[in-house]
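During the reporting period the student researcher (J.K.) took over the structure-prediction task from the postdoctoral fellow and processed the backlog of single-chain submissions. One of the processed entries is reproduced below for the supervisory committee.
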Amino acid sequence: MDLIVTNRDRKDIAALTDYTLDLAYGADENNFTLSFPDGPRLTAGCLAYMDGTEYGGVVASVGTRRTRTGTILTYKGPTWHGVLAERVLCPDAGQDYLTVDGDANRVLDDLVERVGLSVLMRAEGTDSGVRVSGYQFERYTDMYTGVRRMLKASGAKLLMGYRDGLVHLWAVRAQDYTDEVDSDRIEFDAERDWRPVNHLIGLGEGELKERARSDWYADRDGSVSQTQTLNGLDEVAAVYDYSNAKREELSDKTRDKLKELQAQGKVTVSVCEGQPFDLGDIITGRDNVTGLTVSAEVSKKIVKVERGVMTVSYEAGRETSAKQDLSGRAESSPGGHSYYAGEGLQLDDYTFRSQVTPAGLDAVRHTAEQAGTVAGDASDLAAKALNAAHEAKGVASGKTRIRYADVAPSGPASDTVPGDLWYRLGDGSSVIGMWVSDGSTWIPKSLSGNKLIAPGSVGSSQLADGAVTPAKMRVRDMSNLWPNQRFEDDGPVFGAASEVAPPVGRARLMGSREHFAPASTSFEVTPGDTIAVEATVKPVRGSLDLHAGLCYTNQSNGNTMDSYTGGARTGATYPGGWERVRWLVRVPAGKSRAVACFEIEQGIGSEPPFGDTQWLVSDLTVRRLDREPATDGQLGHVRPDGTSVTIDADGVISAHSDGGLAKHPVGSVTCNTDGRDPARYLGGIWQQLPSLGAFMYERIK
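J.K. obtained the following structure tokens:
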């Protein structure tokens, strides 16, 4: 069969008859290699195709080989399938998942337009007869994998062919060729597996005994359920490590993985032109001599042309290299607070992160740890340490040096560069002095802040006269004012009981207009206080929003509710419908005690507005924040520049040596090959995405 090649404008320039082609697509590869001794010179963007077939692709690279008879050029690039695999299906802005519905051909056309491939590809204009009903793609899946899985869920397969200057895509029903692969008619290799995994143990989020677990079983016919029928010698168990998956997601993924493992074996078929099989079809290899029969789904197609002869090979089913070593990646992140750890700076269940080199991080950590002998508030220590790092900007770049001595520097700062640091150590290796070089002179520096220590926390032997004054000191109380954070049965609760399992602890159902915490849980408040009410919530039904805030009491025992203040809402959506939300409430004048409360703005009984909205609430915290929240403008006497040192709305401090985080806004996706959390070298908060090969992460904060 002739192979047509085009120029970069996709205009046909030659029909090759003497060429060598190796093309594969399906479960992997999705690329081609083409060489020919004589003919046009191709460049990047040229096409090579067999008219009316799905055999073709885009030239992406060229190699040359010089022989005695001349020069042979070898061209490589993605097949049409590989072009689809180079596109990623992303959720719409503000949405968790991309969901599609309608006739399969119409869905394909929309997806092609969505990823910008309409200049090369187009779906057939007629309906396929295959209905796609509310299919939800995995987040950030490549288009080829996502489309094949979508069609498989509807019992269909993807076909494509190049004609009239475009690659046409369409969906048809997958076929079962039970009697086509017969040892009396075709040569094939088959392997029958009589002992596939029949008990799959899925492990998700959590640690040790708290780790989420889901067990699924297969029977002798390959049917999957949660009822075990094969025991003793017949049981073949494996562990499916699906890190960070929540229980509902873990159950679905474990079930699907066990279904994949029920393949009877593999079949490899080699035929010449005229074969009928497509990816997604079921073929059965039958040896008439031994009676061995193996059925498997076609997962890969290999096309080779040599000296005018085409051979097409199929691979069906796939081998598992180690049945007991299975893993996956869940996109859902752990429940609870969205605070993630860098090394060295930590405050209870909050964590401060600095984007610095190891040398710079050591300096920040050392300063913070030594200051801990004087101040007990870790958040203020972080501000102090980062102020030092900001003033000595060279620390983060790794170009400065840090010197420790038990004496102060004297004389000129010879052999230094601007930003070099000199720490004077006192008893017990505590830091009692600091100097920064400007390249010629050591300049004394001090660490100051109006929230450094609380009165009475240190003695006169620890502070020099005049170093701090009690009027400039305040401690930050971050304890939870609500006594039963996880809604355990042995503590106070409000709302109705629910059997739905949240990411953390237990959930309570809020289904009417107002829900007040018990009066016995009231706590003291002061006008001007900022109170953060934070919970993990999930809508059950209805369309009305959930509000939270404080209800204030007149009596010290908290029996009478006299008013309510709602909070401003912030939060990030969690996969699976759970959402971590914070409401910030400023206490008004004249209030002294309060309890937490939730409100849904719907009528009671016959009162308008009418509604039956319900929300689930879990993992509740009520905390008193600083009255003067930290901002990029000022943290006490420390003034971050807003670029190399920043403070976000939640008070999380980040230092950036090169402003790299600014190049990765929330929603950005990055990848690496070593599995390191990008927070370690970019800052911010990231969650891992399912991916093939490289490790992929999305910035969520």
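The committee noted the following: The chain has seven helices and 49 strands.
J.K. will present the remaining backlog at the next meeting.
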